[in-house]
Design a protein that fits this description.
This protein has 323 residues and is an alpha/beta fold. Helix content is 36%, strand content 18%. The radius of gyration is 21 Å and the shape is flat. The structure holds iron/sulfur cluster.
Length: 323
């Protein structure tokens, strides 16, 4: 680990600064389940266990599981025929499932049940001859998997502007679905525009943006006016972590995404007395603890908890790993 050069921020040289630890933060139920699946598969089935894509979008988690013996691959042809392969929390398309069958792979599915729910909604609406508009980010693993359920039958949009360009065969048989980790407010704007252009558009039967995404965003909005800076601990490729930064900025707070404490720039702290800290749904708490320790050394020694919403969601493990 790099040795830290400690510079106490000018603003907190005389009086201790405050760290506001937001709750909920960090791991959601889908991420806990996915990580447990890899650990249990290694324990119960033995090595080698292959994992397609990052099990969750966090390098620290991936490296830790790799140290325990998991082999991370990008595509299924990297796994020998007949081997054990785990699908990541973001879900996969039917084409990937088919390839797994052809290669006689023993699949353990760590797709988050809330992602599966969106897949099932999409399949149902396509069967009922609806046109589907999916609100999401093009290159995200979750969106790639969801779009794969009905290639050519789903139109992906990302912004209010995209709504203007939409052409649909029958505006009376139209539904929108969303990625699970979007900004609640940005999505509401896109949905409002969709309803303006297509008044008969149907909504998903239950909110697609998941509870964990919503709760972490609500916590950020609640404290945004009480802090000088928000640090979001999370990976660059973590959708929900990026959204937390955007939500904070929309609420008027200065906010930065950091993978770990090494990325905190000393100049960000200038003039800051109260710093909020949160973490994306795939960020382990140890990375938050390191950020707190780093800032304590810089004079932010007063710690407050801001538990805005309590969470007690858990998802069952796949049957083959339960016994
Ligand atoms: S962020 Fe939401 S959808 Fe994604 S794994 Fe967590 S609970 Fe599931």
């Amino acid at each position: 680990m790099l040795e830290e050069k400690v510079e106490t921020s000018q603003s907190v040289a005389e009086k201790p600064g405050t760290l506001l630890l937001l709750g909920p933060r960090g791991f959601c139920a889908g991420v806990v389940r996915a990580i447990d699946i890899v650990r249990l598969a290694l324990e119960k089935l033995g090595r080698p266990v292959y994992v397609r894509k990052e099990i969750v979008h966090n390098r620290y988690v991936v490296d830790e599981l790799a140290e325990q013996g998991a082999i991370f691959i990008e595509e299924l042809d990297e796994a020998p025929e007949g081997s054990v392969v785990i699908f990541s929390a973001h879900g996969v398309s039917p084409a990937v499932r088919q390839l797994a069958r052809e290669r006689k792979l023993r699949v353990i599915d760590a797709t988050c049940p809330l992602v599966t729910k969106v897949h099932l909604e999409l399949i149902r609406y396509v069967r009922e001859n609806y046109s589907v508009v999916l609100i999401g980010h093009r290159d995200h693993d979750e969106v790639i998997g969801t779009l794969g359920e009905a290639p050519g039958r789903v139109q992906l949009i990302t912004s209010v502007e995209d709504v203007e360009n939409l052409q649909v065969p029958d505006p009376e048989r139209l539904v929108y679905l969303t990625q699970t980790t979007l900004s609640v407010d940005d999505t509401a704007e896109i949905v409002a525009k969709l309803k303006e252009r297509f008044p008969a558009i149907s909504a998903p039967p239950a909110e697609d943006i998941c509870y964990a995404t919503q709760n972490r965003q609500t916590a950020v909005k609640t404290v945004a006016s009480q802090i000088d800076l928000l640090l979001v601990v999370g990976a660059r490729n973590s959708s929900n972590s990026n959204r937390l930064v955007e939500v904070a900025k929309h609420a008027g707070a200065r906010a930065y995404l950091v993978n770990n404490f090494h990325e905190i720039q000393p100049q960000w702290l200038s003039g800051c007395r109260r710093i909020g800290i949160t973490a994306g749904a795939s960020t382990p708490e140890v990375l938050v603890e390191e950020v707190v320790a780093h800032l304590k050394k810089r004079g932010y020694t007063h710690i407050e908890d801001a538990n805005i919403i309590q969470e007690d969601v858990r998802f069952a493990l796949p049957t083959e790993l339960r016994a």
